[in-house]
Amino acid sequence: MRYLQDMTFSDVAKLIKEMGQPAYRAVQLYKWIAQGALYSEMTNVPNSLIESLVGEGYGDCPIKILDTFTSKIDGTIKLLYALGDGNIIEGVLMKYKYGNTLCVSTQVGCRMNCAFCASGLDGLVRNLSCGEIIGQIIAVNKLFGNGRSVTNVVLMGSGEPLDNYDNTVKFLTAVSEDEGLNISKRNISLSTCGLCDKIYKLCDDGYSPTLTISLHAPSDDIRAKIMPVAHRYPIGEVIDAAKYYFNATGRRVIFEYSLIDGVNDSKDCALELVKITKGMSCHINLIRLNSVKERGLKGTSDIKVKAFLKVLTDKGVSATIRRTLGSDIDGACGQLRRRYISEGGNV
């Protein structure tokens, strides 16, 4: 089955032209797609065109919301989505003063297998299509009855976005189109484990989302213990790629650093982190580890988190502690999906 949500506006315009339809039908159709409308809801699109699309094998919606869970602590909403092939993915809607940010998945599972993340426990199942990625945003907007419920997007859910490069960059094009969701490119962040060759390619192909790199250690020996990708891309290469990205796009790079008790939270680690980021236009986002029981890692105490932060800021490094959201609703990547599957669809 093919889906209209997998298409950019130029794709839809080309399809409409090939069907012998007037150009304005593409605008009408694409606006409906961006609203998550089913064919039966597209009131100004002629039945003959709908029938042609169905006859050509185009479905109207590749994803639906299966269930939602709202945090009693901070109002964060965790979402379970069902895909057309029966696979399950998840996302998180976080509410801030400046708007609503949706954490979006790019793969079912993940091949990176980071030691602190539930998404990689079962490995990579498959990549998501562009339509399945953008469909998460569309589904949330439709759920809340507002085409602009989601104002900011972070590609930080299950999966490694740059491991699904083609669909990710197609999404980056489609999500910002005037005829569709029209989300500002400045409001989109992409989180990567540090696939250096793909970071260079992202720049060279002309894309410039806010780049967030999962660093989580200041040295190769520590990083390799918690992130298998470190065996392929040493920290020196990751830092070089980050510098290249800033020079090419003018956009400050964010380094994510999850503090793990007894692993990467010492004063020496903080000082080494200062050293490797010295002189860079970057920001370090310290994260209180949201523990995954299967992983057996423990988060650093609040006292040590604040002490780590103080070392960084005293040395002039831009750094903050990320606010913890959704801790009572399996907020970390992959936790809710895994529990849903293991408990036979009951959570």
What is the topology?
Elements: E1 2-3, H1 9-18, H2 24-34, H3 47-55, E2 58-59, E3 63-70, E4 77-83, E5 88-96, E6 99-103, E7 107-109, E8 124-127, H4 130-143, E9 152-155, H5 165-174, E10 188-192, H6 196-204, E11 210-214, H7 220-226, H8 235-249, E12 253-259, H9 267-277, E13 282-288, H10 302-314, E14 319-321, H11 335-342
Parallel strand pairs: 1-2, 6-9, 9-10, 10-11, 11-12, 12-13, 13-14
Antiparallel strand pairs: 3-4, 4-5, 5-6, 7-8
Helix pairs in contact: 1-2, 4-5, 6-8, 9-10
* Helix and strand element order: EHHHEEEEEEEHEHEHEHHEHEHEH
Strand order of the largest sheet: 3-4-5-6-9-10-11-12-13-14
Low-pLDDT ranges? none
The best one-word shape is elongated
- What would the average pLDDT be, to the nearest integer? 92
Question: Whole-Å distance between the termini?
Answer: 30 Å
Sheet with most strands = 10 strands, mixed
Number of distinct helices: 11
- Rg, rounded, reads 21 Å
Give helix % range: 25-40%
Q: What structural category characterises the helix and strand content?
A: alpha/beta
Strand segment tally: 14
Structure description:
The protein has 347 residues and is an alpha/beta fold. It is built from 11 helices and 14 strands. The strands form 3 sheets. A 10-stranded mixed sheet has the order 3-4-5-6-9-10-11-12-13-14, with helices on both faces. A two-stranded parallel sheet has the order 1-2. The chain is elongated and about 70 Å long.
